[in-house]
Amino acid sequence: MAEAVISSFDFTAYLAKARNRVEVALDASLGPERPEQLREAMRYSLLAGGKRLRPILCLAACELTGEDSDMAMSAAVAIEMIHTMSLIHDDLPSMDNDDLRRGRPTNHKIYGDALAILAGDALLTRAFEMVSLRSPGVSSERLLKVVGELSLVAGAPGLVGGQVEDLECEGKEVDLDTLEFIHIHKTGALLRASVVCGALIGGASNSLLNALRVYANAIGLAFQIIDDILDVTSSSEVLGKTAGKDLIADKTTYPKLLGLDESRARAKELIENAKEALKPWEKNALPLIALADYIISRDR
Ligand code: GRG
């Protein structure tokens, strides 16, 4: 029965529809920022495409609570804004120093370092505006929890901490524990928050929230392992960002520590764990289950 239900779920259509809803909401999310160069720089990166995985996870988690996922759209947009900010800053010469992102020149290549930093800052703060001031129909109590979750994720306990450790470790021998610390903070934290925020907005029960945290931690780490693998097995053309970057920057990665096969096996195991955590909700969790599979089968 469960297998029949899973196979009748049209994930391709689900993903296309969710992406389209997210694109429309992102397009509408930026106001008439002044001066014009700031508006352009913010829009340039926010509307540059991308898989939109984080906002879609947020909507799907809200859906699983039984609530209308439109309720979570502002939070979904906020999460994509935080993600986009982190990509703009990560690409700067003082960080990963990259010139290709989402298939086009990086933000600082077009607008210069100063405006790229400020566009990132403006997206980060706009994210908190989206949640706190532009989430109609969601109680202040739920929104406050989301603001708390996002503050933790964006700051030292999340993205910033992971990024600093990553920069510190460049060119050094790194063990698996440290590598996991970097991945969990730099990448996993925002993926986890995407799921958790959607669930908080939908008013998930504690048992569902706990299961979703297990799911989200597992997919977050699996996502970055696959990212490491794609960096060595794919091309810049397919990825829309510079392939082979980890080798050039002398970064420790899963493939470097464990080899490609074991890295793939570890990602697969994590995805199985993620899906297992949602077993009690299986019938309503098809989008999240399919998204977990997508994370390891993706080619970009
Ligand atoms: C200033 C608060 C603040 C934080 C910035 C720069 C930084 C701290 C953190 C870097 C975080 C980072 C860029 C992690 C990499 C995560 C990753 C694998 C991104 C690629 O995600 P995809 O594949 O990209 O989902 P698309 O383009 O599809 O959205």
**Fraction of residues in H or I helices:** over 70%
What's the pLDDT, averaged over the residues?
Answer: 95
- Uncertain segments are none
The main sheet comes to: 2 strands, antiparallel
Q: How widely separated are the two ends?
A: 32 Å
Written description of the protein model:
This protein is globular. Helices cover 72% and strands 1% of the residues. With 300 residues, the chain is an all-alpha fold. The longest helix is centred in the last third of the chain and has 28 residues, at 206-233. It has one domain: Orthogonal Bundle (Farnesyl Diphosphate Synthase), CATH 1.10.600.10. Bound molecules: geranylgeranyl diphosphate (GRG). Geranylgeranyl diphosphate binds next to helix 5, helix 9, helix 10 and helix 11.
Task: Give a short summary of the structure.
With 300 residues, this protein is mostly helical.
Topology:
Blueprint: H1 2-8, H2 11-29, H3 36-46, H4 53-64, H5 73-90, E1 100-101, E2 104-105, H6 107-111, H7 113-133, H8 140-154, H9 159-169, H10 176-201, H11 206-233, H12 236-239, H13 245-248, H14 254-258, H15 260-277, H16 286-297
Antiparallel strand pairs: 1-2
Bound molecules: geranylgeranyl diphosphate.
Geranylgeranyl diphosphate is lined by residues 50-51, 53, 86-87, 89-90, 95, 102, 124, 154, 159-160, 163, 186-187, 224, 227.
